């Protein structure tokens, strides 16, 4: 794990080196104090030498001040390194997730990606911080303490021979015991996130079906599981803290019991006994600190594994090393023999599909629910990559185009349009940040959204809630269409984007769109016949395969599926 963390701590090497120096000075100060204390007792107090007491006292004060200053500096800089590493890791995980395609999102799931970016990174951040601010000085304090303690009195050092291995054994056992609950804690935090997220998103469905009690029980179960494992960890921590204190105090009692009579017998100086107690406490405290940090290691290792898994996951839609140049002028999109199956699915969702979208023409895709229409649109926009076959733009493989350039070329209005928290204007400018207000109003007009936006209290500056939950479904759809229009793409992919509009609004929108988009290529997925009837080309999809291609008139004759759709909508 250390080697994995090294990559992230490297940019902070200088600060970390400074922390090492500060910790060294701090530890030396700590080690000096018991010896000075012994000197004050033996040669000052017992010898009744006030000057010696004051002289050594001043020295002790100096040592304490230097030690405190260095300790504060080490903690401050340690925090800067820890927080810096944490921020860098979060940024890296975020960047990685941003490159994920639907495939990777499906594999990980949203809740765990959020936990990994926050909670798991926090584990590593805390480990780096405590290592720098506490663990670094522990070896010097322990080794230096042992050497100085032995210098004071060899026979008493026998106590250390017993106490240190006992403390070390406790570390080993507890660290091992903590590994499993640590891993479980992260997994169960994911589970709580998952349930919570689902319940917040689905709150209306829960209320509508009166399933509040059921959902409460579901959450209570996930929450209880998390608490159970957290308690198991807590018990182990309590045991480790308690046993460490027990070891320290038993060792101190043994030192007093063994050393006290020897002080009375004149065999050991009182100052040496007191100093020995000081070193004993320092040594065992150092062991205890190391123990506390080691206890974090299993948990941090689990987090490091979870973060590494995200960072090393290759996106299903990789970026080309050098993007091919963008085709100029009107743009057409071709799908040739494309097959795609979702990971884990038994059969392909899209099979050997051929389709073309020509500039200035509209291609409609129709088919039963689940026929693979949305999947096909996602393949065309390269939101997912084909398993085989080719999606090309003016003859250039879409995989060779720079992804941002491709996004500028292809405007997608998804089936479930999503609006970001902000205002109407910030949402509309999402794909074209420099668009003027006039351009926004124009796009709204084409999308049949001008009237309702104009009627809003702050017009374009009206706030929009995350997801667009403060506007109606039909309004959201129209805003999403306007957002695509503002970006002026050269290929439009409308995935069932008119479904929430009434027939007359849709007819007005289609008429306005036809004037607006000029020689752009349009692909429309639709259920409603009025939407597809006037298309230049209609592709009928059946269980992922193209059943037929043609105009409305042609398909009415040759395609059973198309006839079924006609039939279901009262036409023949
Ligand atoms: N992310 C996914 N992971 C696994 N399977 C998926 C995923 N998305 C869709 N599918 C499956 O792929 C098939 C086609 O789904 P798709 O959404 O492309 O159909 P559709 O024709 O757009 O349907 P609808 O008209 O109902 O929107 C369905 O059987 C669906 O279960």
Automatic annotation (TrEMBL):
It is a multi-pass membrane protein. It is found in: Cell membrane. The keyword Zinc-finger does not apply. InterPro entries: AAA+_ATPase (IPR003593), ABC1_TM_dom (IPR011527), ABC1_TM_sf (IPR036640), ABC_transporter-like_ATP-bd (IPR003439), ABC_transporter-like_CS (IPR017871), P-loop_NTPase (IPR027417), Type_1_exporter (IPR039421). The lineage of its organism: Bacteria, Bacillati, Actinomycetota, Actinomycetes, Pseudonocardiales. It comes from Actinokineospora terrae. The chain crosses the membrane at residues 54-77, 126-150, 156-178, 236-258, 270-294. It comes from the Bacteria. This is ATP-binding cassette, subfamily B. CDD domains: ABC_6TM_Tm287_like. Residues 17-299 form the ABC transmembrane type-1 domain.
């Amino acid at each position: 794990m250390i080697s994995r963390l090294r990559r992230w701590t490297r940019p902070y090497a200088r600060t970390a080196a400074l922390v090492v120096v500060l910790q060294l000075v701090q530890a030396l100060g700590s080690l000096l104090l018991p010896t000075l204390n012994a000197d004050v007792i033996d040669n000052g107090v017992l010898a009744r030498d006030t000057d010696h007491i004051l002289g050594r006292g001043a020295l002790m004060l100096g040592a304490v001040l230097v030690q405190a200053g260095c300790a504060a500096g080490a903690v401050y800089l340690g925090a800067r390194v820890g927080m810096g590493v944490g921020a860098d890791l979060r940024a890296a995980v975020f960047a990685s997730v941003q490159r994920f395609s639907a495939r990777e999102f499906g594999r990980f799931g949203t809740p765990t990606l959020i936990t990994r970016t926050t909670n798991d990174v926090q584990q590593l951040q805390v480990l780096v911080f405590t290592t720098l601010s506490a663990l670094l000085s522990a070896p010097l304090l322990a080794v230096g303490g042992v050497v100085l303690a032995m210098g004071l009195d060899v026979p008493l050092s026998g106590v250390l021979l017993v106490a240190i291995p006992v403390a070390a054994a406790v570390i080993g056992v507890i660290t091992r015991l903590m590994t499993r609950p640590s891993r479980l804690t992260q997994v169960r935090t994911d589970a709580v996130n998952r349930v919570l997220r689902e319940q917040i998103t689905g709150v209306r469905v829960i209320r509508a079906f009166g399933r509040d009690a059921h959902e409460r029980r579901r959450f209570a179960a996930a929450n209880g599981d998390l608490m159970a494992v957290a308690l198991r960890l807590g018990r182990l921590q309590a045991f480790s803290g308690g046993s460490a204190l027990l070891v320290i105090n038993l060792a101190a009692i043994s030192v007093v019991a063994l050393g006290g009579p020897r002080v009375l017998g004149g065999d050991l100086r009182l100052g040496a006994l007191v100093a020995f107690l000081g070193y004993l406490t320092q040594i065992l405290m150092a062991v205890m600190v190391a123990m506390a940090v080691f206890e974090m290691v299993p948990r941090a290792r689990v987090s490091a594994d979870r973060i590494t898994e995200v960072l090393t996951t290759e996106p299903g839609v990789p970026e080309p090393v050098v993007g091919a140049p963008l085709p100029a002028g009107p743009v057409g999109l071709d799908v040739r023999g494309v097959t795609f199956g979702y990971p884990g699915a038994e059969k392909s969702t899209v099979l050997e599909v051929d389709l073309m979208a020509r500039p200035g023409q509209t291609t409609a895709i129709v088919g039963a629910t689940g026929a693979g229409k949305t999947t096909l649109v996602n393949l065309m926009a390269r939101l997912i990559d084909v398993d085989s076959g080719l999606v090309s733009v003016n003859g250039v493989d879409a995989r060779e185009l720079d992804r941002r350039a491709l996004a500028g070329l292809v405007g997608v209005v998804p089936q479930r349009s999503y609006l970001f928290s902000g205002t109407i204007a910030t949402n509309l400018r999402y794909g074209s940040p420099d668009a003027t207000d006039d351009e926004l109003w124009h796009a709204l007009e084409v999308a049949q959204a001008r009237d309702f936006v104009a009627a809003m209290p702050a017009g374009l500056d009206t706030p929009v809630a995350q997801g667009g939950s403060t506007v109606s479904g039909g309004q959201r759809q129209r805003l999403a269409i306007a957002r695509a229009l503002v970006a002026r793409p050269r290929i439009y992919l409308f995935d069932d984007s008119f479904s929430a509009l009434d027939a007359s609004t849709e007819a007005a929108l289609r008429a306005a769109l036809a004037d607006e988009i000029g020689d752009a290529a349009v692909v429309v997925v639709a259920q409603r016949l009025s939407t597809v009837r006037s298309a230049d080309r209609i592709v009928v999809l059946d269980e992922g395969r193209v059943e037929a291609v043609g105009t409305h008139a042609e398909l009415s004759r040759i395609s059973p599926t198309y006839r079924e759709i006609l039939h279901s909508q009262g036409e023949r």
